[in-house]
Write a structure and sequence with these properties.
- The chain is about 0% helix and about 55% strand.
- About 30% of the residues are buried.
- It folds into five domains: about 110 residues, Lipocalin (Beta Barrel), CATH 2.40.128; about 100 residues, Lipocalin, CATH 2.40.128; about 90 residues, Immunoglobulin-like (Sandwich), CATH 2.60.40.10; about 100 residues, Sandwich (Immunoglobulin-like); about 90 residues, Immunoglobulin-like (Sandwich), CATH 2.60.40.
- An eight-stranded antiparallel β-barrel has the order 1-2-3-4-5-6-7-8. An eight-stranded antiparallel barrel has the order 9-10-11-12-13-14-15-16.
- The radius of gyration is 40 Å and the shape is rod-shaped.
- A hairpin with a 4-residue loop joins strand 2 and strand 3.
- By secondary structure, the protein is mostly beta strands.
Amino acid sequence: MKKQLLIVGIIVLLVCVGLSGCTNNPTEQKITTASQDKFLGTWSVYHVITNENGPVVRSLNYTWIFYPSGDFLTITAEESGFYLDDYKVEGDKFITSYIPTGDPEIDAVFGPEEYSYSFTNDYKSLTLTDLHPKAHQSYMIYLEKQNTEGQDKFIGTWYGRTEQSGHDSHLATMIFYPSGNLSYNNGTVGSYEMNGYRVEDNKLYFDYEAYPNEPDMWGYSFTNDCNSLTLCLLNPLTENDEDFMFLFHKQNSSNVEPIVSCSADVTNGTIPLTVHFTSSGRDIDGTIESYEWNFYKGLSSPYGTSSLGQNVTHTFSEAGIYYAFVTVTDDKGVTAKDGIRITVTFPDPVILKNTSYSYLDSVYVDGIVKNVANVPINNVNIKVTLYDKSNNIIKTSGWWDEDLGDYYDSAHPYYIKPEETAFFHVSFGDVPYYDHYDIEIISFDSGYISGCGESLAISDIQDNIGVLGYEVTGTLKNEGLYKLTLVGVWGAFYDSSGNLLCIEHDYTLPLDLYSGQEETFTITAYEFGIDISKISSYELKTDEFC
């Protein structure tokens, strides 16, 4: 099982703290329940046979093992070794089955057998009294339980699921046998396995014949009067197994909690992200009556409204970490929950247009960035890399270290509203030759500072051919109430086909612009960089540091 487990799950805040939540009544001498639980286990056996000569004690060196399947195994010291029989518990009777041989004398002796039973010594001692003596003799069978230091509470058939964050949950069945064997089935073809188990020092160990030196070590916790069991893996082989759990309920408990698992067609993406959720519920002792989905931003803040149904669709319109939980309710009103994590991010801004040109030993790369998110973004950092014909890097943009690109040029303005654009202008010195370039958006932030860029107004715009090139002049005014810092005006120049020719900036404006203050700006598309005769239109944008 160790090498074949389908590792699955979600973040589950459970702690395995050893045996707890189990009720025993040491004063109870006899049980009249139909449950076979108290019989399960390995017992040492001796008989007292009473006939016409009186009682005779026979210590046969027998071992009986009662299994959850209804079988019990007799192990003897004789050469024949062992044999298998059936048993059941009905009210205050313990009954062993018998297949008639057709021989009246043999069948009269060995028949189906019924015994009354009583437990003492905290269910560690069992007495069976023959209710139908045959052939003038009756039996008293005395049993002393073995392996009573922790194994007993595990013995039986358990249904449940595996849990692990970042993985799907899978249904599983596990049977602990009194012999120390363990069978496991996760519902897939070929998944049935048999291994050994043992309980030592409040830990459960799974032993593997193929891996004798690599037992799994589990912490365990019993709840619900020992009808619910949580196993937590304590010695994971990899980081992926660190939060691996089993959540089980016993087959013959009065009401078994339903089981549910959920999945999503996508678990991460950009806003707006539409996710289709599916779930699968199972109730081994009843029916699933309802499914309800609830969504949270983080683990505690509800997000949107709840949805009913086994499968639902939900759209996340904001970036963040979300959790979707499905809760099922069975026909007895008992609930179970499963969840899945959804990560929603902002879409990267896109480069709409870009161009490059050179003059003497300088290279200029200009472009336009568009915010395709539905929220404002800021601090868009852009890296431009120049290459030669062999695709070797010549230079990478940066103010502090051009080769390493420790600090990259930023798009302007400081923030970009949804569906709006900003300009960038990157220059390289001492580059006599380059063949091609690429542009990469390194990082950006989300958010918007109220009033940023909204109080700058441009007026009195004029354009003409000046001494150095194509000039655009105008007036920039701070119409807001507060001083603005690092103000600027940027101009993008286009040809008649809408192709970007260059982007330029007015470097003569003061760094600060006080409330009500206005300044004249001039933006020049220099004729030594581009063919200014191709300019057909231009676009102006303002920016500031907020």
